[in-house]
Amino acid sequence: MSWNSFGRLFRFTTWGESHGPAIGVVVDGCPPGLALDEAHVQRFLDQRRPGTGKNVSPRQEPDRVRILSGLYEGRTTGTPIAMMIENVDQRSKDYAGLPPRPGHADAAYDAKYGFRDPRGGGRASARETAMRVAAGAVARLVIPEVTVTARVAEIGGEADPERWESLLDEARGHQDSLGAIIECVAEGAAAGWGAPVYAKLDADLAAAVMGINAVKGVEIGEGFAAGRASGRASLPLMQASGIDGGIATGHPIRLRAAFKPTSSIGIGGRHDPCVGIRGAPVVEAMVALVLADHKLLHRGQTGGESR
Amino acid sequence: MSWNSFGRLFRFTTWGESHGPAIGVVVDGCPPGLALDEAHVQRFLDQRRPGTGKNVSPRQEPDRVRILSGLYEGRTTGTPIAMMIENVDQRSKDYAGLPPRPGHADAAYDAKYGFRDPRGGGRASARETAMRVAAGAVARLVIPEVTVTARVAEIGGEADPERWESLLDEARGHQDSLGAIIECVAEGAAAGWGAPVYAKLDADLAAAVMGINAVKGVEIGEGFAAGRASGRASLPLMQASGIDGGIATGHPIRLRAAFKPTSSIGIGGRHDPCVGIRGAPVVEAMVALVLADHKLLHRGQTGGESR
Amino acid sequence: MSWNSFGRLFRFTTWGESHGPAIGVVVDGCPPGLALDEAHVQRFLDQRRPGTGKNVSPRQEPDRVRILSGLYEGRTTGTPIAMMIENVDQRSKDYAGLPPRPGHADAAYDAKYGFRDPRGGGRASARETAMRVAAGAVARLVIPEVTVTARVAEIGGEADPERWESLLDEARGHQDSLGAIIECVAEGAAAGWGAPVYAKLDADLAAAVMGINAVKGVEIGEGFAAGRASGRASLPLMQASGIDGGIATGHPIRLRAAFKPTSSIGIGGRHDPCVGIRGAPVVEAMVALVLADHKLLHRGQTGGESR
Amino acid sequence: MSWNSFGRLFRFTTWGESHGPAIGVVVDGCPPGLALDEAHVQRFLDQRRPGTGKNVSPRQEPDRVRILSGLYEGRTTGTPIAMMIENVDQRSKDYAGLPPRPGHADAAYDAKYGFRDPRGGGRASARETAMRVAAGAVARLVIPEVTVTARVAEIGGEADPERWESLLDEARGHQDSLGAIIECVAEGAAAGWGAPVYAKLDADLAAAVMGINAVKGVEIGEGFAAGRASGRASLPLMQASGIDGGIATGHPIRLRAAFKPTSSIGIGGRHDPCVGIRGAPVVEAMVALVLADHKLLHRGQTGGESR
């Protein structure tokens, strides 16, 4: 089963393989009248672009986005917003004839679909996440009152940023890779966004973030620490988590995502020693997308006022 | 926004407040011809029933389930299966006039809906999870080849079961409560269930489990440990996680959920010192529900054979 | 595949067989704070009840509805509203051992599900529509500014009401049955409800109405007459149809549904000579349900103001 | 609210304005391993292309489709299939500054979105239907056992094809336009496709066809004639309609759609005197899309065998 859409009222659908002619996204459900241009989207894409530092993959992907629909004179019209990036540096020959790579989804794809595009990971490529970032850039316009900020909290278990550079150099030297923890805070989400049972804001955020390539764990608020605490100790902390019973409280929403180490060990010089570093903008985008959706959903049912 | 359904092809919708006349669930999308009776569902409900030990809430809830539709001569007919439990021990007077309780969803409900049923948590009550367990009992019939087993892995940060009894006694004595970690293993899910981008099996599991009351964190496979590891160290472990690129590999699927400590500190003698203990059957149910859905989805697209 | 839910934001799910213990509906997505009681729902159910005239089936079904959830002190809480009617006059013995009846869905069910509840049509029974009427009664509370009125326009091809009584007597005498055309007008739907491409208001109305048992045709505005007209002749009429490009214009919305004659010819004294007569309240209900959904959807995207 | 997707398991999302840079569609849920190339899609697009006769609009749109994703070595991979057509003959200046046109959706758009792309109808343009035809070409690969054929049955109320040419010439001479009735037959759909309550095959077909621009009425089987008949007279006919209780019987499925006359009277030389003529391939496409979806849904629930 293929399922390439996300969201309820503010929805997006991505398409494209990392080594096909292009990748793209269609954002549907965006309200009309919002100012949007390619430069706005490009700014967010550039944050996640590979080739901008020695700790991220050196492929040169300009990632130049085009907006193909949904705009008139610089404003959204309420119709679907299609965005596309052409793939210019594909080098699929690097991958030709490779057997399924351990730790990649290759074997799982074989099991599911019977055959598989062997070029560079296909849909499971991290490149697909560029389109989530593009969609997230549109989502931010829907929630201008919210700031969503993700940052690296740990690399290889190390929380002190001063140690990260040497850890990454060391990993690169050994053709090894490192996991990372990304922390994201959303401030400004109105009390009342969310739902109490099956569209809980925290459940939707968990799905959004767990669906990012390489993510293996998600925490809301205190997360696993709460699972190891006593009520008296953790109660004050829990009130600060930003979500209660699936519904935003109006306080900052905090979550953390665990990115596993890169799987492409030894495939050559083109891998990231720590994919989690590039994960931060994707986490931000997904959180923005979920919040935009819940803002519209809340408005649909209640007219949108917090009471 | 209210959203009380879960699933894509195998779907269920729950209804009912903990202190209204009844709670219920409608399971839709169940294939025809499966043997089902109330005793099968009741067996799973009894596992989560309060009042069966000193460490769980002493309310006496018979939780006697009735199946109201979808059966003919002991077999499912392919039509919706409605199940209902009447609420017999409601004691709503215990709650009347109480202000919003810290750590409960009460204030969030107020913000969302403007007013709120003050009796015992309404929809956010743990009681709603009984219906997920009932739905999960039906889901298990759809995936007879799969065994789903959840167990308590930690209580209050303690992994040694021999210490739990005294920890719980101590917490009860201090009117305190403890978090818990629940671990769940599903064996027998066929390689190929899942989807590579937005209906990833791990993302759906994360949403299902994070949507359980009191859950604050979810890990698939190595989880946060992978976020703190190096690739060389963790690669063998990752291959054993059971899901790769959103798709089941055919190996056992492992996940863990962090339950925060009970919030109802000091509300009287009726609280659980550790809600996580009752969480295990709910985690099992949600995992079974997600797997049943993905089995049907996989069959829909590919005919269902692993290739 | 079983699919027993309808709607996007304002959704409902029906369950129950005509000869099982009960039938019911869960309405999800209803805004909070609306005054609702069983009497309001019962009033609409009584309009479609059989046994209230010689031209409708003489079964005595009290159809006494109970509301089991979603209310607190007479107002909706924003949580799911479960309603149930117990089946008291089932007489399933009348049907036992009957072969599949021509013109009923029996043979189609056999093809789909392999076996079938032989008692009185199961889910395909007209009785299921009682729950749509109950859900529709809730939908009306969401759109108090709209009046939805359906009436019989033709019976057996005859548009003059003075002729209907004798036509029906004649059909009953011959154990024959007659088709009917039902016309429905909704006044007060705001300009802007609907969507331009795939959630067109007219497409959703068509699905809602075509999904009623025995309906074989749906017209919006001029309908088939427009298909036989010239533009100059029909343009003024089209502007009055109430929907343009999938979006409500603010003018009254008009539609017509064709109900085929009853299939149960000769099954005994219990059939309606013209099921279409009972169809009018069901058409009204479905139209109200679609409009309530679109009101919420429109508010979700735009804040709800017509501009 | 914007909603530009259609389908449950076999889904598609269209995007693009008639006078923007391109239009496109993303088809999601297509099974893997099906042979597909651009020529196959192009063949169906060419059937609906304007400029191929004097009775259809003389714009020269090459409608050259590109497939941008979802293929590997000529076969579908199970990932989303993105298709795009660049708009080369836009002439938006023809439309600049025009007031809302009566009979178009312009005024409704204004009411909904507050402002509107004034160039050529935007999303409501008949050009959007090209992408439904492209998606339909993919759908046909999913149901190779089914033939779907639509034809013009009436033009301006005239059922005799020999009269159509002169009627159209006359209308063109008077800058008038004519409605049409399109008839579609699908042969080969297996008994069992469909669902008995809210995903009825006939209800889904009604929504699909009523959602086509200019369609004002839909009939399944006998349609409105059944609404005017007696049971004895119509029973044999009803058995031949191909759908019973929402489920395919295995017999040919027959439906009819009423297209209203073109609204663009007097806008210049570029209008079709009868848009219904171009509607036939779109009806075919939508029917194929619904059937492909229901085939997958049926397989999902039951394994797909008719029993």
From TrEMBL, chains A, B, C, D:
Domain of life: Bacteria
Cofactor section: FMNH2
Cofactor detail note: Reduced FMN (FMNH(2)).
Presence of keyword Lyase: yes
Classification via Pfam families: Chorismate_synt
Binding-site residues, NADP(+): R48, K54
EC number(s) stated in the UniProt entry for this protein: 4.2.3.5
Entry keywords, A to Z: Amino-acid biosynthesis, Aromatic amino acid biosynthesis, FAD, Flavoprotein, FMN, Lyase, NADP
Annotated pathway: Metabolic intermediate biosynthesis; chorismate biosynthesis; chorismate from D-erythrose 4-phosphate and phosphoenolpyruvate: step 7/7
Alphabetical list of InterPro entries matching this protein: Chorismate_synth (IPR000453), Chorismate_synth_AroC_sf (IPR035904), Chorismate_synthase_CS (IPR020541)
Keyword NADP listed: yes
Residues annotated for FMN binding in this entry: R123, A124, S125, N213, A214, G245, K260, P261, T262, S263, S264, R270
Parts of the chain that traverse the membrane: none
Gene Ontology molecular function: chorismate synthase activity
Catalytic activity: 5-O-(1-carboxyvinyl)-3-phosphoshikimate = chorismate + phosphate
Family note: Belongs to the chorismate synthase family.
Assembly information from the UniProt record: Homotetramer.
Functional note: This reaction introduces a second double bond into the aromatic ring system.
Protein name: Chorismate synthase
Source organism per UniProt: Sphingomonas kaistensis
The organism's taxonomic lineage, starting at the top: Bacteria, Pseudomonadati, Pseudomonadota, Alphaproteobacteria, Sphingomonadales
